[in-house]
Amino acid sequence: MTYTHTAPCLAKRLAAIALAAPFFLLFLLFSSSSYAFEPVKISRDDTALDLTATTDIYANQGEAFQVSTAPGPDGIRRRIEVRASSADHQGDWAVFALANVSEEQLERVIVAPHFRLVNSKLFWPDLGSQRIIAITPSEGFALDRQPSPDADVFRITLNPGSVITFVAELSTPQLPQLYLWEPEAYKDTINAFTLYRGIVLGIAGLLAVLLTILFVVKGTSVLPASAALAWAVLAYICVDFGFLEKLITVTSSDQRIWRAGAEVALASSFVVFLFTYLNLNRWHAHLGYATFAWVVGLALLFGVAIYDPSVASGIARVSFALTATAGIALIIYLGFNKYDRAILLVPSWALILVWLFGSWLTVTGQLDNDIVQPALGGGLVLIVLLIGFTVIQHAFAGSAYQQGLFSDLERQSLALTGSGDTVWDWDVTRDRIVTTPDISNRLGLEPGAMHGAARNWLPRLHPDDRDRFKATLDVLLDHRKGRLNHEFRIRAEDGHFHWLQIRARPVLGSNGEIIRCVGTITDITEQKNSVERLLQDAMNDNLTGLPNRQVFLDRLQSILNLSSDSDGVKPTVMAIDIDRYKLVNDTLGIAAGDNILIALTRRLRRLLKPQDTLARLGGDEFGLILTSERDPQRVADFADAVNKAIMVPINFANREIILTASIGLVSWIDQQESAAGLLSDAELAMYRAKRAGGNRVEPFRPAFRTSGTDRLQMESDLRRAIERKELSLAYQPIVKLDDGELAGFEALMRWEHPKRGNIPPSEFIPIAEASGLIEPLGMFALERAATDLMDWQHAIEKMPIFISVNISSAQLLNNELYNDVRGMLTRTRCNPQQLKLELTESVVMENPEQARLVLSKLKETGLSLAMDDFGTGYSSLAYLTRFPFDTIKLDKALVANTSDKRNVLLRSVIAMARALDMQVVAEGIETPEDAAELSRMNCHFGQSFLFGTPVSGDAALKLLRERFQPTKRAS
Q1: Is residue 941 scored above 90 in pLDDT?
Q2: pLDDT value at position 852?
Q3: I need a surface site. Which of 321, 577, 856, 962 has the fewest CB within 10 A?
């Protein structure tokens, strides 16, 4: 019975043990991290022990924390529970164990500093705070806290042979350092550091006060920047050394704000000092803007430091490193440019770089000891001390000169040095010339080559100056008085001649003879060249080198004066103007036009004899005075030779360019005729030849002076031309760039005068604007274009084209324009969507508000509006949004631009226009390649002579019949 009774009991116990075993193993597993296995052994001789590595940190463990103690002398581990003693506790705990292996009782203090620069990190640094709230030992009562402003200090007593586990209640999960000190040793260390910190603080304070006083006395801009840096360093040291807590009451959280603010102030003053000392605004204005933005950004960090000191401190540390790096680059660059301030700053900056490297090793934890933090503070003071010496040296350099403490001889020496002139000293008795500094270097000769006898200078002088130079020196020696002021040319080693000027005075000896001649020698080559250039520009054309109009008239007047006294001289004046030269500029560019003018100048010069004169009167007009021929037939043959020489093809950019000229000539007959009158007659004949179609020689006839040159006559003719319908429109094609199809035309005004022939718009449009005829002229162009468009629509159905018509400022400012346009649309029954009005930016700018109102009303009728010549003038982007334009026309100057930035500019303008739902028309396209490139840029239309010249209305209809399939209309 007993056996049978105990067997089930035993079975139940085994089953209970089997069930409890897993839970026990799990308990051991999860509680293994709460063991304090090995205690730190302490003997009597251990004065300071670092417990940081042997301390275990347990984060987020709650208000109650259980831990197994280290094994005591009996080898038994015990489990203790500690509860938080403060409401601010976040559940973070630290555990360490100490063992007294000596045979006597030991007194020690546990020290946990609030802030430690070592391993505080560069980004989001640990700026310090209270570390330990309380420490509870495994035996006895909680440890007593010792008063200390910059560390948590607790006093402990260890009995002989005792092993005690300590549980520290942490205020933060970070515990940078935990030290065990012998009390007296700790006190001595604190006293030693206090003495050191006092000395450093004293030096920093004296430097800040000294630099401030110097700023008040001296007032130079670099001194306040240096004083600000010194005060920032003093503020940082006061916070770092704990001196601030002796002045005001600072809590642990406030200490983080003060520390971050001090670091921001240090970084800001560092940037300001670098900018001010190197005077960076002098080198580039953008450096001033960048520095201002940098300092403003750092100033904002003061506000950030209140809410998040770690972020502000991290940015300030990065800024300090970036400033030091930028300083290296600036000092190297400015040093190579011989900037003395940069050179003086090299020692200070080298020390800054060493300090910065040491700081980096410290904050990253690679340099770890107790003296590195105060050493870095002392290093900052040393940097400010060196910077102060540098600034004072620079600020007070030359102070004796500023106070006038130098003699007249020194003043003259300084003036001579400042002028940059070379001293010329001729020892007459020894016949030896010496220059200081040696002028041989400036001429590219070997040093001392120009030192020696005066006759040694003669071979290097210009042949035209040798005799004059020698005679000047001889006259000075003979008269034994006066001054030497002589200019001459001397050949340098490279073969070029330099203009030199000697200004000297003789020095007489006791016998009245000249013993030496001392003065200065100056290189005046630039001045001479400038004078020659001014004379050349005043008398000659810059491009061709030919005489200008004024010189041409002066020579012609001289020849006329000579002709009145001699029958052997009978000049002929020719005015030569290149036909369609503007077309060459518009098509090939101004540079190509200039090269063509130079080529024509060379051809014409070959036809002249020495007594003839060729001049460029302006633009594409040349003047020619022919005195080598008197016979009328030979003069006519010469004029034909000039015309043929101009017509010889010119090859440019793989193109053959053939030019013609309109030549007017007049021979001198009337002895009362002046040069200006003779040239005016030749130009009248030239204009007559140009109106007749060009490519001809037109002799002058007196009737030219009154035929068609009167402005009033042209105004009257223009009024009659409107009534007689002598005006017509020519249509230049506008094509789609993506497929080359015809998209529309631009209407261009033409006037076929019954007597003068075809008069270009450049002549009659200004007269129409000045006389008030531009409004009927503009309405005529608008109505004629609409009428022709409707005629084409009746001839060809479904024709998707438009016509662009230009309007002037007078039309735009006319309040009746809107009514006139509506009446025109009613009369012609033209679809307003096929009519486009073009106006330039200058037209809009005359009265922007009036223009906006008129254009808005015109837009309501359905008309399209285009801004012409976009890319010239102001090209204000504001007009594109302020006015209801739906099309922009890129000016040919922008399209034909050959610079590297052309494509970037065109692509940007086109993309902008498309984003604004605008169509783009490119004018002046020169090559199919340019058209293809513009098409790839999504430009809509193109207009230039590449796609077709302006044609009449009938020719435009024929072109439309070729492009669009005609359909018969129902009768």
Answers
A1: yes
A2: 83
A3: 962
Between CA 787 and CA 793 the distance in angstroms is 10
Distance from chain centroid for Cα 872: 23
* CA 28/CA 17 separation, integer angstroms: 16
Q: How far apart are CA 801 and CA 835, in angstroms?
A: 9
Residue 874's pLDDT band (boundaries 50, 70, 90)?
low
Q: Which has the closest alpha carbon to 789: 760, 818, 820, 829?
A: 829
The backbone torsions φ and ψ at residue 98, rounded to the nearest 5 degrees and listed phi first, read -125, 140
Cβ atoms of 779 and 812 within 8 Å: the answer is no
- On whether the CB atoms of residues 941 and 736 are closer than 8 A, the answer is yes
How would residue 622 be classed by pLDDT, with cut points 50, 70 and 90? Answer: very high
Locate all alpha helices (DSSP H) within 623-753, ordered by sequence.
632-647, 675-691, 711-724
DSSP 119-149: T--SSS-------EEEEEESSSSPPEEEP-S
Q: Which residues of 648-674 are buried (b: 16+ CB within 10 A; e: fewer)?
A: eebeeeeeeeebebbbbbbbbeeeeee
Q: Which of 186, 188, 192 is nearest to 112 (CA)?
A: 186
Question: What would you report as the CA-atom Rg of the chain, rounded to the nearest whole angstrom?
Answer: 49
Describe the crossing of helices 252-278 and 372-395 by its angle, rounded to 10 degrees. 30
Burial class of residue 450, CB neighbours in 10 A (0-12, 13-18, 19+): buried
- Give 424-464 as a 3 state SS string: EEEECCCCEEEEECCHHHHCCCCCCCCCECHHHHHHHECCC
Q: Write the pLDDT tens digit of every residue in 567-606.
A: 667 888 999 998 888 888 877 888 888 888 888 989 898 9
| Nearest residue to 388 via CA among 209, 200, 202, 211 | 211
d(CA 517, CA 432): 10
Among candidate residues 786, 812, 809, 795, the one with its CA nearest the CA of residue 731: 786
What residue type is assigned to position 788 of the chain? D
Q: Characterize 298-335 residue by residue with b for buried, 16 or more Cβ atoms within 10 angstroms of its Cβ, and e for exposed.
A: beebeebbeeebbbbbbbbbebbeebbebbeebbeebb
Burial class (CB in 10 A: 0-12, 13-18, 19+), 884: middle
Residue 774 near residue 764, CB atoms below 8 Å? no
pLDDT-wise least confident of 6-15, 500-509, 768-777 = 6-15
Burial class (CB in 10 A: 0-12, 13-18, 19+), 239: buried
**Contacting residues for 662 by C-beta, under 8 A, at least 6 apart:** 576, 577, 579, 686, 687, 689, 690, 694, 695, 696, 698
Burial state string for 43-68 with b = 16 or more CB within 10 A and e = fewer than 16: eeebeebebeebbeebeebeeebebb
Residue 135's DSSP bridge partners are: 168
* Conformation bin of residue 902: beta by default, left when phi > 0, alpha when psi is -120 to 50: alpha
| pLDDT tens per residue, range 260-309 | 888 888 888 888 888 888 877 766 667 778 888 888 888 888 888 788 88
Three-class secondary structure of residue 250 per DSSP:
coil
User: Would residue 592 be called left, alpha or beta, if left means φ above 0 and alpha means ψ between -120 and 50 degrees?
Assistant: alpha
Task: State which amino acid sits at residue 725.
Answer: K
Query: Which residues are bridge partners to 699 per DSSP?
Result: 665
Q: Which two tokens stand for residue 389?
A: 């010496």
Measure the CA–CA gap between 218 and 395, rounded to whole angstroms: 8
Beta-bridge partners for 733: 745
Q: Is the peptide bond before 137 cis (omega within 30 degrees of 0)?
A: no
Structure tokens at 864: 């399209």
Q: Which one-letter amino acid corresponds to residue 551?
A: V
Q: Could you give the CA distance from residue 19 to residue 28 in angstroms, rounded to a whole number?
A: 15
pTM score above 0.70: no
227 closest CA partner among 237, 213, 212, 238: 212
DSSP result, 595-630: HHHHHHHHHHHHH--TT-EEEEEETTEEEEEE-S--
